[in-house]
Amino acid sequence: MLAVTATPNQAGIKISGDYFDLDNLVMSFYKVIGDENKYYGYEGARMRILGICYEVRHAAQGDRNVEKVFNGLHEHIKVQHGFIAPDKNIYFSVEVLWPEALFAVVALKDFIRLYKQEAAHPEWDLDLNTVRNFQALVLDCLQGHIPYDAIESVRQAYAGDTSVEEYAVQYVDMLNLKMIDWTKEEREQNLAAVAMKIAQQDQDYQSFRQEVLKVAGPPKKPIHEVGFNKEYPDEIDW
Q1: Residue 72 scores a pLDDT above 80
Q2: CA distances (Å), origin 180, targets 27, 44, 135, 231, 237
Q3: In sequence order, what are the beta bridge partners of 93?
Q4: What is the pTM of this model?
Q5: Exposure string (b/e) for 204-237, b if CB count within 10 Å is 16 or more?
Q6: Which range is least confidently modeled, 116-120, 158-162, 215-219?
Q7: Disulfide check for 169: which of 44, 134, 202, 220 has CB 3.0–4.6 Å away?
Q8: H/E stretch holding 232
Q9: Is the pLDDT confidence value at 145 over 80?
Q10: What pLDDT sits at residue 85?
Q11: CA dist list (Å): 207 to 142, 186, 197
Q12: Confidence (pLDDT) at 219
């Protein structure tokens, strides 16, 4: 079963499941976001989701974290059915920074809307349901780690119709790096505010986007192709 939990030091989330859970998630992402250049103006958002796909796919291949998880097989069940079997399953997992994961939740709303325009029966589409389940798991995890009085505002913000078309994805990098630099306590204190910034595209984001657009042209370069000149550290205190 796919699961999303917060990392110990609140830098982000941990996506975990068995091989089939993670492989199914990646395949559903691929299906819903479409091929390259299918949705004009969403190239940057698509690249960010592909970044998560890359990490999840490598996790499923055993290149990230490998864990043993209790599978519910108690000793009396073994005796009752007369067989010998392990009581733990192998789960794979990978960490994703909070801003990256929350941006994916918002971006996937756009891709779901676009995908549904072509789907014959979207209400029965397994890939759509897999993607929606991922979104719900991330937001459910988030709600467990922000102040109670902020939960309703966050719910409303993520239920809104904010679009990521022509989004300045470098803003996600900036928030990611802030999250990395903060202490655990600072991450806990600022998580709700970061979540709202991703969902609402406030004045800080609008100002940031204008700066990116200035760099983009002339000659005009696609907004998602404007470079981000700060490096991520090799190690993150998850």
Answers
A1: no
A2: 29, 22, 22, 12, 7
A3: 16, 65
A4: 0.93
A5: ebeeebeebeeebeeeeeebbebeeeeeeeeeee
A6: 215-219
A7: 44
A8: none
A9: yes
A10: 65
A11: 26, 24, 13
A12: 74
How many whole angstroms from its chain centre is CA 125? Answer: 21
Half-sphere exposure (Cβ direction) of 71: Cα atoms closer than 13 Å: 15
Tell which residue, 55, 71, 48, has the closest CA to residue 224.
48
CA distances from residue 237 to 7, 142, 189 in whole angstroms, order as listed:
9, 19, 17
**At what angle are helices 98-116 and 19-33 packed, to 10 degrees?**
60
Owner of token pair 């798991």: 137
Instruction: Tell me how far CA of residue 98 lies from CA of 10, 23, 192, in angstroms.
Output: 8, 22, 11
Task: Give the tokens for residue 87.
Answer: 């009581």
Burial of 1 (0-12, 13-18, 19+ CB in 10 A): exposed
pLDDT tens readout for residues 16-47: 999 999 999 999 999 999 999 899 999 999 99
> What pLDDT was estimated at residue 87?
72
Domain coordinates in residue numbering, the chain: 3-225
- Residues in the chain, overall count: 238
Whether omega for the bond prior to residue 218 falls within 30 degrees of 0, making it cis, is yes
**Comparing C-alpha atoms, which of 117, 101, 97 is closest to residue 29?**
101
Cα–Cα distances in Å, from 34 out to 44, 197, 231? 13, 26, 29
